[in-house]
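Bit of a strange request maybe. I'm writing a small parser for C-alpha cell strings and I need a real example to test against, not something I typed by hand. Could someone generate the C-alpha cells for this chain?
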Amino acid sequence: MKIRRRAQLICRWVPEGLEVGVPGRRQWVRLSPELREILERAGEGVGTDELAAAFGEENAPQLRAALDKLTAIGLLVPADSEVRPAPLWERWGGVAERFHVEGRDADYLVESPRRGEVAGEIVAEGGMPDAFKEYPGRPVVPLPRRPLPLHGTVDDVFAARRTHRLFTEDPVGIDQLSTLLFHGFGPHRFLDGGPFGVQQARVSSSAGGRHEVEAYLVAHNVTGVAPGLYHYSAARHVLELLDADVRREQVEELTYRQEASYRGAFTIFTTAVANRLAWKYRHPRAYRLWMYDAGHYGQTFALAATALGLGPFQTVAFEDSAVERLLGVDPDEEFAVYLLAAGVPREAGPLLPSDFAHPRPAALR
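Reply from user aminoacidic:
Good idea to test on real output. This should exercise your parser:
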C-alpha cells in the first residue's frame, strides 16, 4: 500500500517543539523527530513496506501504529485517493483554512462567572492602549464644530447610495468634510466602560467599543484645507498635518491607478491599530473584528457622504506596504485596511451612478 502526505499542512514552532495542524480541527500534533521523518518521507507517495525498511524491522510495530494514527487524523492519506481540500481552500490556500479553523467557536464567557475575573486579570496586567492616536506638535487645521444638517430621509439616502467613480472638478467645502469626518470617525458621546475605562459611542459599531480604526486624509480639492496628508484626530476634531507634499499622483501609484481613488476631492486611508482589539480580545477569532469594523466605518462614510450630496468610493485594492510607508506607521502595530474617497459626483439619474448603465435584458438572463 502506498501513502502520501496530505497537501497544504500547516506547521508551527512553539517552545515545546514543532507542531502540525490536524486538517479541519482545532487540534495540533507535536512532531517528534520520527514523526517528522515519516511525513517527510511520505511526500507525494511511498510504500509502507519501504517506510518500514527505512526505520528498521525492529521498529515495524511502532511504525505501523504511527501510520494508522497519522492516517486516522488525516495527516497521511492513501496515495491514490482523491482526498483534496474543499474548493474554497484550494482557492484561498492552507493558511486561510487553518486560520478559519482556529478562529471558530471562541468562548466569549458571556454567561460565565469567570467573565469578571478574566476582565480583572486583563486590566491588572496593565498596558491598556490609548483610545485615541494623536500627533502632538504637528500643525493642525481646526474643523468646524457644528456639523451640517443631514436632511435626507433614510429611504432617499439608502436608495441613492452608490459607489461613484466619476467626479467634477468642484471643491468640497470644509464644512462638508468636517461633517463627514465627525459622523464617520468621531465620538458622539462617551460611556462608562467599567474596568476597561471610558469608551466611545460612534455612529459605527465597533467590537467592545474599542474603535481601532484610524483615518488619514489626503486633501486634493477641499476649500479651507491645503493639499497634503493629514491624520484626523478624533479626540480634538482637527486635521494634523503629516506631509504637505503628498499629492494625487502618489495616491495613484498606490492604488493601481484606479482613478476614482484620487480624482475626487479627497482620499482617506483607514488603518487598524491592532492592539486596541488584541489587548482585550485574545482569541484568534478576534482577528476578524477589525474587518467587520472597517466595513461598518466604510458604510457609515458612504451613507453620510450620500446625505451630504457627495459621491463616495471605496476599495481594498491598494499596495498595503506602500500605503503604510506613506502614512509612516509600523505594520506590526497598525496596518492599512480600507481606502475611502469622495467628491462631487457628475450628474446622473437619481438611482444610477454616472459611470454605469442598466444591463440589457439578455445580460440579466
